[in-house]
Amino acid sequence: MQWDVVIGLEIHVQLATKTKIFSGSSTAFGAEPNTQASAVDLAMPGTLPVPNEEAFRYAVMFGLAIDAEIGRRSVFERKNYFYPDLPKGYQTTQLEQPIVGPGHVEIDLADGSTKTIRIHHAHLEEDAGKSLHEDFHGMSGIDLNRAGTPLIEVVTEPDMRSAEEAVAFAKKLHSIVTSLGICDGNMSQGSMRFDVNISLKPKGQEAFGTRTETKNLNSFRFMEQAIAHEVERQMDILEDGGVIDQETRLYNGDRDESRSMRSKEEANDYRYFPCPDLLPVEIDDAFIDHCRSRLPELPDARKTRFKDQYGLNDYDAGLLSGDAKLAAFFEDAVSHSKDAKLTANWVQGELSARLNAEDRLITDSPISGVQLGDLIVRIADDSISSAGAKKVFDALWSGEGDNVDAIIEAKGLKQVSDTGALEAMVDEVLAGMPEQIAQYKEADEKKRKKMMGGFMGPLMKASKGQGNPKLFTDILKKKLDD
Amino acid sequence: MHNKSVAELSNALASGEVSSVELTQHFLDRIKQEDGKYNSFITVCEDAALDEARQADERRSQGNATPWTGIPFAQKDIFCTNGVRTTCGSRMLENFVPPYDATVTARFRDAGAVCLGKTNLDEFAMGSSNESSYFGATTNPWGENRVPGGSSGGSAAAVAARLTPAATATDTGGSIRQPASFCGITGLKPTYGRVSRYGMIAYASSLDQGGTLARSAEDNAMMLNVMAGFDPKDSTSIDREVPDYTATLNEPLKGLKIGLPKEYFTAQLDPAMAQTIRDAVAEYEKLGATVKEVSLPNAHLAIAAYYVIAPAEASANLSRFDGVRYGHRCEDPKDLMDLYTRTREEGFGAEVKRRIMIGTYALSAGYFDAYFLKAQKVRRLVQQDFVNALKEVDVLMSPTCPSPAFVQGEKTSDPVTMYLEDIFTIAINLAGLPAMSIPAGIVNGLPVGLQIIGDYFSEARLLNAAHQFQLATDWHQRTPA
Amino acid sequence: MTISREDIEKVALLARIRVNDQQVTELENDLGNILNLVDQLQSADTENVKPMAHPLDAIQRLRVDEVTETNQREAFQAIAPATEAGLYLVPKVID
């Protein structure tokens, strides 16, 4: 049987505010356990929440970016359950009246088409702390530094039909929130976490099947794998004539396994009710106008501009415009290099490869956009060879030097492009290789091409690696073919 | 000395007639001698109080004293006090020493007042007799086996027994006014949002309000001058100017329009109680007030609405007591569920458990609309009644309680009979209005309070009305035999 | 309105309060009486009445996003039942 896959996502986006949603504690990542947990965050008796204005601004900016209705009056509710990482015994969240109403996001698919994914709503809530499972004499340790970090939970309609679409959406959302500057986008630190709702239905059938929810996926790759895994699991059950249980599942990316969390759910009844410690939040036009004035260029607009302004093709423009920080880096580089295509190649090639290899973000790149731009200037004007360029790049990356020209100078990487001087070198080298010349003359075109390397090696050696290889080749060819 | 009012003590300190150290020592001695009979204090801060008194005397000598500098007072043990154990009358917090102050605590500290100790209360302020305290019941100074009312019974008994000139209190359904009535003293529950709730351990957040207990209206006004005001740490605190509540105490009452809710004066009301209240109202007429009957048609629904809303909020507010970060924790929990269920079984008393469970039930799937949402709608009906009545009159008057102080143990077997104690006070919390209880007579040898209810933020007017009554009568001067 | 033993056990579990059989029996009676009291609510006509969550029709103030809290771990953990290496200890958490 053929099956349609139906996917909806719930995404927790940590907001990059300085302080928590209900207290003045820092949200900085990586502090010693419980050093950023105030009396309010610890739910000490008598303490009370006061909401962070910036969290509301960020939520509204997100709403504007996805063309959503802004909740003019939003209400915090208490979601009641006991868990050691939840100090109050309830999570303060929004349910009936969220800050962001229905909106939409466009995604680009591999076949070049675009698709609209509808957003059901997005609401503000507080993050929980962390349970550390290292063994403390059979106990777990609780760190509440993260407790109270502001989140928006973005809930989509079940509009995605494949893992590819779901990942494209997730990446697009990542690109939107990082472009807005409302989230640092650091997936490995849990700044974005995905819950995936998946159901199957016979191809063409309108009614949706029973769905499962796979919780807490924190990378695009795990999300893709988890979807594939769950689709297969459901398909196996359905094709054996079984039924899908509506349940929450936990996916283990390292083992590509999932299991039901149903035992935990059975006893849950969250008993939502409006939080009596907080009043309704009203958002007026001035507040929205302020947020609109803070909206930066968004990925879709930037992509169009990159195509127009730099003449990039759709693929390059798409890749470089998605991440605001990467886009800014590219623009810094291009403003110096004046060669958009070559710059795009370097950013997506050598730079991205190095960043990935060292698991660094563009913001942690040891090379600045300006430096890369300077390097590209020297490549474009033939001052250095591509092999020399890689050496300069290495020196910049390792911090061995910070000025492109100084590195070229110090390492003697400057190419000799004076044809007279190069010709003299060619003549000198050829004079010592009569046998090779004779063989060359007898060889056919195909063989000749291969044999060029035999001349280039000694030539580069003679020029101490500084001869412009392209010019050497031209001169060689002319002389040998004559 | 201990019969002097706060206002008189303030003058005595200012004139140098007495020092704060002397005054504080005097009250500490009284507590030591007398409180064995009443059990009105859970914790007495002997050393800290004398330290504070010395600092107050020093501050006064430097010429920057406030009217409260050096005045001893007591704190209901629901307000967090940095470095002083704060129990809320519960085993759960038997050894809880908060490393922070409630805003109310900080305000008295800033004014230079001297905290004598922490007073007894019904556990987590849930009760009307002070019998649900883990630290034992408090006894009413007016009668050996009488309850002082609750939940601020320790504060009220301590003031009535002259162990402190004044005490802080909180009122969620009558917890200031009923003990004031039972103990023959004066109490004020301000408008919701007038006094910060920060550091005041929550029972029901949308109903709780901190307030005052002292012998006279004037002393209540002096207390409110310290306590009232906007607090950025409490989202429900109201940013609104605070008047000097003592400045208008002497305004004449001529023309004051008094409304008597007919629903509060039914045939079921004890005739002696009714007569006492009518006599008090007659006194007001002598002072130039006019009286008319008004109606609160939904008043009979207030208790039902309250016993859904308050427990529902409490069920969530008390979830933080889980044995993880502070407070009681059971021995050797075998797993997480055991940690929670045994810690909470051991840490909470019977009444607290009942309310948590009723609240949990009212919010649970299938019952939310019928109970919680319905109660919130009825709450609006109850509030609208008051808003409408207060368009016709300036204040409403009623008995504070259906009877004088009852006998200990009389109502503990059936929670519902205890709940009915608050029949005249509870609606005011639902509406969020300010109200006072002032001594208005003696029935069967026990004091009886008159409740005065005003419009939002009309505390100055209520205190003025209470003060004028106290200039004309001496009920508030009566002492237990 | 009566409340069943099963309901009481379910509610006690939700509220994380251990109850024994005798307590359930007592609660059946007490909670039943309380529910009878609150059932008066059903007599009220609340059509078109908006639920009231707060006594005053006030609007939430929002706080400026500035760090105001400092590390007080030592003071907070001095009153904690069980800590180690700056963490609060609880029986093993199993997801």
TrEMBL record, chain A:
InterPro entries: Asn/Gln-tRNA_amidoTrfase_suB/E, Asn/Gln-tRNA_Trfase_suB/E_cat, Asn/Gln_amidotransferase, Asn/Gln_tRNA_amidoTrase-B-like, GatB, GatB_C_1, GatB_Yqey_C_2, Gln-tRNA_amidoTrfase_suB_CS. The keyword Ligase applies. Keywords: ATP-binding, Ligase, Nucleotide-binding, Protein biosynthesis, Transferase. One of its GO terms (biological process) is translation. Residues 328-480 form the Asn/Gln amidotransferase domain. Pfam families: GatB_N, GatB_Yqey. Belongs to the GatB/GatE family. GatB subfamily. This is Aspartyl/glutamyl-tRNA(Asn/Gln) amidotransferase subunit B. It comes from Marinobacter zhejiangensis. The lineage of its organism: Bacteria, Pseudomonadati, Pseudomonadota, Gammaproteobacteria, Pseudomonadales.
Automatic annotation (TrEMBL), chain B:
GO terms for molecular function: ATP binding; glutaminyl-tRNA synthase (glutamine-hydrolyzing) activity; transferase activity. The keyword Ligase applies. Keywords: ATP-binding, Ligase, Nucleotide-binding, Protein biosynthesis, Transferase. InterPro entries: Amidase, Amidase_CS, Amidase_dom, AS_sf, GatA. It comes from the Bacteria. PROSITE patterns: AMIDASES. Its EC number is 6.3.5.7. Coiled coil: none annotated. It catalyses: L-glutamyl-tRNA(Gln) + L-glutamine + ATP + H2O = L-glutaminyl-tRNA(Gln) + L-glutamate + ADP + phosphate + H(+). GO terms for cellular component: glutamyl-tRNA(Gln) amidotransferase complex. Residues 22-463 form the Amidase domain. The active site is at K76, S151, S175. One of its GO terms (biological process) is translation. Heterotrimer of A, B and C subunits. Belongs to the amidase family. GatA subfamily. Allows the formation of correctly charged Gln-tRNA(Gln) through the transamidation of misacylated Glu-tRNA(Gln) in organisms which lack glutaminyl-tRNA synthetase. The reaction takes place in the presence of glutamine and ATP through an activated gamma-phospho-Glu-tRNA(Gln). NCBIfam families: gatA. This is Glutamyl-tRNA(Gln) amidotransferase subunit A. The lineage of its organism: Bacteria, Pseudomonadati, Pseudomonadota, Gammaproteobacteria, Pseudomonadales.
TrEMBL record, chain C:
It comes from Marinobacter zhejiangensis. Belongs to the GatC family. It holds the Pfam family GatC. It is an enzyme of class 6 (ligase). The keyword Transferase applies. Its EC number is 6.3.5.-. Heterotrimer of A, B and C subunits. GO terms for biological process: glutaminyl-tRNAGln biosynthesis via transamidation; regulation of translational fidelity; translation. The gene is gatC. Allows the formation of correctly charged Asn-tRNA(Asn) or Gln-tRNA(Gln) through the transamidation of misacylated Asp-tRNA(Asn) or Glu-tRNA(Gln) in organisms which lack either or both of asparaginyl-tRNA or glutaminyl-tRNA synthetases. The reaction takes place in the presence of glutamine and ATP through an activated phospho-Asp-tRNA(Asn) or phospho-Glu-tRNA(Gln). This is Aspartyl/glutamyl-tRNA(Asn/Gln) amidotransferase subunit C. Keywords: ATP-binding, Ligase, Nucleotide-binding, Protein biosynthesis, Transferase. InterPro entries: Asp/Glu-ADT_sf_sub_c, GatC. It catalyses: L-aspartyl-tRNA(Asn) + L-glutamine + ATP + H2O = L-asparaginyl-tRNA(Asn) + L-glutamate + ADP + phosphate + 2 H(+); L-glutamyl-tRNA(Gln) + L-glutamine + ATP + H2O = L-glutaminyl-tRNA(Gln) + L-glutamate + ADP + phosphate + H(+). GO terms for molecular function: asparaginyl-tRNA synthase (glutamine-hydrolyzing) activity; ATP binding; glutaminyl-tRNA synthase (glutamine-hydrolyzing) activity; transferase activity.
